[in-house]
Amino acid sequence: MSSTNSNTNSNSTNKEIIWKVAGVIVPILCVFLTYFLTNSSAQATIVERLSTYFDFVDESMSYEQALQAVYEESQRKDELIEIFCKNPQNLVKQRITPHFLTTDHPNYYEFTTKE
Fold first, then answer.
1. What is d(CA 44, CA 63) in angstroms, rounded to the nearest whole number?
2. What share of the chain is helix, strand, coil (3-state, %, to 5)?
3. Which of 57, 61, 86, 115 could form a disulfide with 65 if both were Cys (CB 3.0 to 4.6 A apart)?
4. Are 14 and 8 in contact (CB under 8 A)?
């Protein structure tokens, strides 16, 4: 009789351990599932918002592709700013001054001498 009593005790101990392990594993799995679902939703929202702010970002892009496009465009603009800072007068003259206000335009005399 003592052997059946010890078997019952070991079975109940095993069941207790299994329930305790399941009680730890199930919430951990729920946390991971929630994280992945929330993360993908947040990334989709970020790509959608980026596509409204930047013409070169499309809603069909992945999160990584959208961030890469924004990064590359910002690098390109940084290079332009650096070029502008090195030689601001030429860029200002090229971008702002209309051609008919410059003396080196081929039709300068035509614009200035007409009556």
1. 7
2. 80, 0, 20
3. 61
4. no
Q: Distances from the Cα of 106 to the Cαs of 85, 112, 113, in angstroms?
A: 29, 12, 13
What pTM value is reported for the model?
0.49
Tokens of 43: 């990334």
Task: Tell me the chain's radius of gyration from C-alpha atoms.
Answer: 35
Residue 58 contacts residue 69 (beta carbons within 8 Å): no
User: Any idea what the Cα angle at residue 108 is, between residues 85 and 88, rounded to 5°?
Assistant: 5
Q: Which amino acid is at 16?
A: E
**pLDDT per position as a tens digit, 28-86:** 999 999 988 888 888 899 999 999 988 888 889 999 999 999 999 988 888 888 877 77
* Gap between the Cα atoms of 78 and 115, Å rounded: 47
Paired tokens of 50: 């980026």
Would you say how long the chain is, in residues?
Answer: 115
